[in-house]
Write the structure tokens for this entry.
Amino acid sequence: MNWNVLLPLLIVCSSLIPGVLIFFLSESSIRTRTALNLFGAVLKLLLLILVYFGYRSGQEYAFTFQVTVDLQFMLRIDALALLFAGLSSILWLITTIYAIGYLEGSPNRRRFFGFFSMCVTASTGIALSGNLVTFFVFYEFLTLTTYPLVVHRGTQKAVEAGRNYLFYTIGGGTVLFVGIVGLSVLAGEVEFAQGIHLAGFVETHPLELKILFFILLAGFAAKAAIFPLHGWLPVAMVAPAPVSALLHAVAVVKAGAFGIIRLIYDVYGIELATALSVLNPLAFIAAFTIIYGSIRAIAQDDLKKRLAFSTVSQLSYIALGAAVPGMLSSVGAIVHLVHQGIMKITLFFCAGNIAETTGLSKVSELNGIGRRLPLTMGAFTIGAFGMIGLPPIAGFVSKWYLSIGALDSGQPWVVMVLLGSSALNAVYFLPIIHAAWFAPPPVGGWADKRPNRRLEAPWMLLWPPLITAVVSVLVGVFAASWWSPLTLARLIVERVYFML
Amino acid sequence: MITALILGPLMGLLAVVLWRHRAAEITIAATVANTVFTAALARGILRSGEVEMAWWGLLKADGLSALFIGTTTCTGLVIALHAKGHRQPHGNGPIPPGFWPSWLVLLTGLNTIFLSEHLLAMFIGVELVGGAAVGMVVLSGSRRALVLARRYFLIRLPGSLLFLFAIAWLHAVYGTLFMGELRELLEPSAMTSWAAVLLLFGLLVKAAVFPLHYWLPAVHAIAVGSAGAVLSGLVVKGPFFAVVRIWFDLLPTVATQAAAAFIGALGAAGILWGAVHALRERRLKLIIAHSTVSQMGYLLILIPLLTGYAGSSWAAAAWTGGIYQAMAHATAKAALLMGAGVIVYSLGSDKLRNMHGLAGHLPLTTLAITLACVSLIGLPPSGGFIGKWLLLSAALQSGQWWWAPVLLAGSLLTAAYAFLILSYAFQAKVGFATVRKPPVLMEATVLALAAASVLMGLRVSEPMQLLGQTDEVRMEWNPEEGAP
């Protein structure tokens, strides 16, 4: 056992072990709990940075454990894994701080933070999985550990949302299970390796491969909230704001989207997937979901629900980019995985702050809110502009690559979809921003109560959205620099297409 | 070792009779000894790769026996520790003293079934288990428990008599009851088929196979925590093992694929019936008891997957999958019923609506129930996951894809009733007036067993090797070569 074997395991355990320990602490030992949480988050990040440099210099990191003859547990570092694990660990750190501030004084915090750590363990595990079976293990672990977070408030509504959530995710998990067993019956163990394990079956079993592709896709789509499997997401909004932020930006929906990316690039391989012509149906569904989600978002008056439908729409950008063959769209898809996460988490932090400081949750009540919460609304504005796709914010980079990728592969209709979606994004975001900054605040209610402190909100609630907002500008402005998600995405795509 | 496995619990029983006030300690010591003997037996088989015979060929230990004895004795040990910590929900007394001798008789009986090579030995084992199980049911001493125990006894009786009749018949015709010899002599005929049907019928009643399961839920739900765990987790595995032995070791020349498909269909019906009824119950113990009917159905799917396909490429998967499912179910189900016992102790009832807010007050028990459910549903990396994975891949490989939807539907329904329980536990409003803190030993044992049932999915190679080494007939499979 050397370090290259242990490191992937350590990265997963760096949040698992604190999570387990938190369950054994008492509810009142807040300081130890916070310390454990932050220690885990920082350690994970440091380990990832270490592994990133190792990986860039050609080191290989893999941990394998043979469960039975055709079941192997495998954690492995590749560029895509690093991208997703990096995203989730950075956002986890920020969300942990936010959650500590948000939940101050509320009951059952031990349970919350315990499962919160477990949840990030699951998404890191998903990132590092080296084969479908391992992916499935963590995928189901994610379902289980997010359930207590969704029902955290314990109200009738929360419990119902939890039931709804499980209905989709357990169902999706079962479908995925069938697909994985089917694939392993056909081809033995399937590692994530650009489809080399399946290439031999194109001639002999094309139909089976096609069917299995759609079964696996359905399994992932349930979490990625692709139409018609998106129903759980808006309902799950009853969860506390940090949970929504995590569900939307990092963990659950991203696990689904990441699964789709793995499925296309690493299980089937882009060549095989194109040859089987399974990508076009996916592109159509994704395009439909983009438009559908945006239109539904316009009709929502509840701010978090509007954001939820926006997630439904934005998530499908990833699926759409992955379904259009060609390097540039692939870059767009993979980079959007990160960009959407940063921007959407900003928006959810802001929505949480608005609700926490003024008790408002409806879009129609937000007149003049910018005067009361200038920094929060500033961050919100950046996030929303990014979603619309204004340069130089991150969202623009994603849309740029998706568009030129679509043109490059001769599918101009995709550009129309993207433009339409941008227009719709503007329709449901701009009124909020306009009302917040330019409409007069209502008389009475929140507007009369001045905060009796220097900051507009507690610092633990204020800093996280500001940081993510600044980051979403930075990754857009410095998209070409060596540390940007775009550079990493290009690296990944080069490896996918040239089989490096 | 075989001798020790039969005589050990009996000596323990004798000691319990002599020193009644030390019954609990003696029983636990005897169970520990039994665990050690099993480990030694399994080691011997793994080393030599040979079947161990004893007592003039009446008893035989192969990998399958070792696995089943190991599962029951380890689970039984945890249950016995739980029983030691058990306190009555009303008042605070210990578990009724009848539990200890009943458990030792039951252990003897189960060991006898798992080791039997002779049909009469198997019969004795089955009857020992049955008698002790009746004793477990009446433990709580309530009038309803007595009524149910009597009913349970009467239901078992015809099955036992038919089994005995079939043995006598076979002995009269073939002159032997050693399974190994009998297998060579058996010829397909109407008479043999009838004898086989009679043999199996009684066992299927006792294993609560659909549609002969109707007695089970009420009986298993009335028993006190630890006894319920023994009944639902372990007792039903005895007759199931007997069915497997008879079907694959005694009847391979007689068994037809049509009959196997029929048994599989019974299993499938049981899976769905049990799960649907579990969903409609509103008492925790009744949900768990119906779930037993459902999970027993899974085990029978093994029969159609394997009958007539000895040596096929999926035989190893089907065989280990079925056996693993049985092992995972034993541990998970026992943990669930023990957990239900803890809840009854703490809240004074097992009604779901009283369980509102349980997660906040009994976090460890809630966690244990969740883990046990993970294994029952078959989520990774639990033992149940390995079982379902192997069964599903065997079903697809063998082309008998129609079992796949049943397996998956059962899994989904299991998830539905598991999360029904949990959705009550996670509500904020509290459904109970007072909550008593359960003894540490009670909660710790539940959690340990539930965790074991999840973690057993991580160590599959030894059990597979145990099965592989002595069952070449069924598998023709060599772990070195890997899966076909």
In short: The two ends of chain B are 35 Å apart (CA to CA). The longest helix of chain B spans residues 315-347. The interface with chain A takes residues 316, 320, 357, 359-360, 363, 367, 370, 374, 377, 379-381, 386, 388-390, 392-393, 396-397, 404, 408, 411-412, 415, 419, 422-423, 426-429, 457-458, 460-461, 464, 479, 482-483 of chain B (CB under 8 Å). Residues 371 and 450 of chain B are 6 Å apart (CA to CA).
